[in-house]
Amino acid sequence: MLTFSFLTLFPELLAPFAGEAIIGKARERGLLDVNLVQLRDFSDNKHLKVDDTPYGGGAGMVIRVDVAERALMSLPPADEVILLTPAGQPFTQTVAEELAQKNHLVFLCGRYEGFDARTEHLVTRELSIGDFVMMGGEAAAACVLEAVARLRPGVIGDPESHRADSFSSGLLDYPEYTRPPEWRGQRVPEVLRGGNHGAVAAWRREQALRRTLARRPDLLMGAGLTPQDSAALLNLGVTAEQLQAWDAPPPPPAKRVKRKKIRIDGSQSE
User: Fold this and answer.
1) Residue 130 phi, psi dihedral angles, 5° rounding
2) Which of 113, 120, 126, 206 is catalytic?
3) Which is the catalytic residue, given 54, 70, 79, 86?
4) Among residues 125, 150, 204, 211, which one is catalytic?
5) 152 is catalytic
6) What is the CA radius of gyration of the chain?
7) How many CB atoms lie within 10 A of CB 132?
8) Annotated binding site for S-adenosyl-L-methionine
9) Each residue's pLDDT tens digit, 192-244
10) In the prediction, which pLDDT does 267 show?
């Protein structure tokens, strides 16, 4: 079982997210556990106040480090104690896969002007879900919860399905289609309806390369491209210099076409 513990001033924001859909079902089956910890329970005053004005002046309030410490001390040992902050390491699929191997993850969800800077000494990692500012860490925590939980064995129905997802393969995902076969003049590509699994796989890989090149070319640097991918990218207009910058292998050598030679007597030879 993987346990997620969230230290927050608003556990009611995370409760429905952690109790519905796939995550809720995984909890019922004993695959995941979600522990919502109210930071106010660790206040040392009758008003349950957990924050104070910042030293040096300025707007807003800062959550006290001693409150965070008492809350952390109430929990079983954790593999990671994670502070959700704009200053943190970008949260990526690679990070999600790493965290999915753990048994207990603790998240500090800030509010107001965040936690006292000394809280950083209590954590093992700082994470950010993007270069923007939110009102608190709960929404970011929900994103991390879903991204990590779905990677645990048994949580999603098909254990192979996440391996073809965007970023898991290093590329954006290929486009998906279902019924109806035609909608407002737009038809499902014939290759997907032909039953040739090899052709489908080749089409999907080419489409993933095409999408990534058009929308997120920065991902191609670490995508683990194959010689066949290099050939496909060249056909999409990529230059040899770009392939070299992405550390892509050279494309497969072109196949030599054997030409038949005609002898003077009219016979043919290879």
Assistant:
1) 160, 165
2) 113
3) 86
4) 150
5) no
6) 26
7) 7
8) 110, 129-134
9) 999 999 999 999 999 999 999 999 999 999 899 999 999 999 999 999 999 99
10) 59
The token pair that represents 128 in the structure block: 């950010």
Print burial letters for 1-14: b (CB count within 10 Å at least 16), e (below 16): ebbbbbbbbbbebb
Closest CA to 220 of 174, 175, 176, 169: 169
- In the annotated binding site, the residues are 110, 129-134
Catalytic residue list contains 165? yes
CB 103 within 8 A of CB 79: yes
133: its two tokens: 């500012």
Q: Do 136 and 83 form a contact (C-beta atoms < 8 A)?
A: no
Backbone region of residue 186 per phi and psi (left: phi > 0; alpha: psi in -120 to 50; beta: other values):
beta
Q: Note if 216 is an active site residue.
A: no
Q: Which domains does the chain have, with CATH numbers?
A: 2-149 (3.40.1280.10), 182-245 (1.10.1270.20)
